Amino acid sequence: MMVRRTFLSAVIGGLLAAPLVVEALVAQAQQQTVRIYRAGLLASFDPEAYVGDFREALRDAGYVEGQDLRLEVRWSDRYERLPGLAAELVTFRPDVLVAWTPPAALAARNATRTIPIVFSFVNEAFALNLVASLARPGGHITGLSNIVIELTPKVLELVKKVRPTASRVQVLWNPVNPGHPLGVQLSHDAAEALHMSALPAEVRGPDDLDTVLGGLVRKQMDALLPLPDGMFTTHRARIIRAAINTRIPLVHFERLWVVDGALISYGANLRDMVRRTAVQVDKILKGEARRSPRRATDELRVGHQPQDRQGPWPDDPAVAPAAGGSGD
Fold it and tell me: Are the C-beta atoms of 86 and 72 separated by less than 8 Å?
């Protein structure tokens, strides 16, 4: 009798345990079949201010970082380091590479001819030979193209509205940035048309900033315009602080600078651009056709914090006309 009861208990126990075993095997199989996508992000500036928007947009698309998505981020504001960082990301074997700014996009392009690349913060994709054309980029590179350098005349026009007596504008430029020679030329021509002088100051690296910024008062500058550059963005706090301390208006192309204390920005909505970059990444991961590079819209941003920032009072008559033409 004891043997029979033991046998029945074993059979019943086995039957009860069988569903649990099956469920465990099914769960294990499901885990094994979940694909983990890999994405690499390369930037020529500290991407902290924008990478949160990028991750949020990917979450909105259904990805869960750490489960079905791995994102590797590399950045340096010293452009000579970007090729090595791009090569490092390629060894990660990503499904897609994201490159922010022209130097990062060029480094990514030179690192691989097969991995899809989505660029952003790039205004001259065709001129830089990143794409065959804006209508049909071809190859393995696509992205978002935004007008930045071409807005230099508009930004200088805002300088004249804010400070009608301005005659000398210090233009910070980085000779390593492929788009800056055009910016220097545009600033010269636009300033001349406005009866001002745009004086370029070469900044090859962070070590040059103190020397250039220290001479703003001595050179009797009426305004400061850093051309869009990853190294300038990373060290914007130093540049903004120098402008505030010398009471020299600082104008830029990026809203982030006004948030941190500059006077006015006029340019593309870069946070929106980052989110749209994530949409393109999603399409590539899903195997959908890549679209042609798109241009981003522009916005005007005026600061209104006069104590520790450069923002004028909201009713400043010099700023009101400039603020009326475009929205935030």
Answer: no
Q: Which residue ranges make up each domain of the chain? A: 37-146+269-297, 149-268+300-323
| Parts of the chain with a pLDDT under 50 | 7-8, 10-12, 15, 18, 21-22, 25-27, 29-30, 290-309, 312-328
Position 201 scores a pLDDT of 95
Q: For the segment 247-286, what is each residue's pLDDT rounded down to a tens digit?
A: 999 999 989 999 999 999 988 888 898 999 999 999 999 9
Joined tokens for residue 78: 């010293």
Rounded Cα distance between 161 and 9, Å, is: 91
> What pLDDT is recorded for position 39?
96
CB within 8 A of 73, min separation 6: which ones? 40, 41, 43, 47, 51
What kind of fold does domain 37-146+269-297 have according to CATH? Rossmann fold (3.40.50)
Question: Sheet holding 37-43: strands in order across?
Answer: 69-75, 37-43, 96-100, 117-122, 141-145, 294-295
Local structure of 38: helix, strand or coil: strand
CATH of 149-268+300-323, one of 3.30.40.10, 3.40.50.2300, 3.40.50.150, 3.90.550.10: 3.40.50.2300
Residue type, 125: A
Compute the distance between CA of residue 34 and CA of residue 281 in angstroms, rounded to an integer.
19
Question: Which residues face 120 on adjacent strands?
Answer: 100
Tell me, what's the pLDDT at 293? 47
